[in-house]
Amino acid sequence: MRKDGPFAMPRKKNRIQTSTLTHQVVDLLKERILNGELTSGQRIWAADLAKEFGVSLIPVKDALLILQGEGLIINVPRRGSIVRQFSLRDVIEMVQVRQILELEAAALALQNNAVDERLLEGLREHNEVIGKVRNDQGGWAERLVPYRNDRLFHELMVSVCGNNLLVEWYKRLNSQAQVIRLTFYNIGPRGDKTYNEHNAIVQGLADGRLGDVKLAIKNHLKSLVEDYRKAAKANPASLGLDEGGEPALPHGRRQLKSKKSNAATD
């Protein structure tokens, strides 16, 4: 067949379209994971998604591979793709890395004079949402809103540091952290902890006192780990863990409890 024959352009166009479809599926699935529609340990059925999205299995499977590379999905032999489950050790190690990145981002932001009223107002807005819906209020969807604002609070704080690579790494890590945040939904709220700990971070930034900001970040993340340890010991199944702190076996279409559980953020 000639290179400039009638089938040359369609083949090239199809490759571009497939790539576009794949990234559209990636975006849709990631949004569902970050918003709590797909939860830790929940199986993802490629055939169902292909039917829902009106595409072939190829872009769906390619999307799952991309999300697997981003640490949001794992492939379990004989069970297929599931939303990643994190061990207690995974959580501790993730918080340690978050602390390193957040402390450096805060130092760079203050050093570069990037902390302005617009940043502070954005952080306060996210935290006020957390403060208003931190108890058993509203329906399932309403009580998931604080988790989204918790993720966005931290991403906004890091986003002004001026180091694009740090921001990129942190955003990827924070997406994984969101899966962990959402497991708190099943074990009850952290009360006023997140709201007050975030306020301390914002106040330190507003005062331009790096020492206060670093201390507030450390206290916030330490508090998170302590609460997670307690929950893992008292009720590991609620976090998708076994008694040893390892991920429990996936249990199909696992959902966040929507009626009896209280909302919580980290």
Summarize the structure.
The chain has 266 residues and is mainly alpha-helical. It has nine helices and three strands, in the order H-E-H-H-E-E-H-H-H-H-H-H. Helix content is 63%, strand content 4%.
Question: What order do the helices and strands come in, and which of them pair?
Answer:
Blueprint: H1 8-34, E1 43-44, H2 46-53, H3 57-69, E2 73-76, E3 80-83, H4 88-111, H5 117-132, H6 140-159, H7 164-183, H8 193-207, H9 210-234
Antiparallel strand pairs: 1-3, 2-3
Question: What labels would you give this structure?
Answer:
three-stranded antiparallel β-sheet, 9 helices, 3 strands
Can you tell me about this structure?
Helix 5 packs antiparallel against helix 6 and helix 6 runs antiparallel to helix 7 (164-183). The chain is mostly helical. It has a three-stranded antiparallel beta sheet with strand order 1-3-2. It is globular and about 55 Å long. It has helices at 8-34, 46-53, 57-69, 88-111, 117-132, 140-159, 164-183, 193-207, 210-234; strands spanning 43-44, 73-76, 80-83. The protein has nine helices and three strands; from the N terminus they run αβααββαααααα. Mean pLDDT is 85; it is low at 6-16 and 252-264. Strand 2 (73-76) and strand 3 (80-83) form a beta hairpin. It is 63% helix and 4% strand.
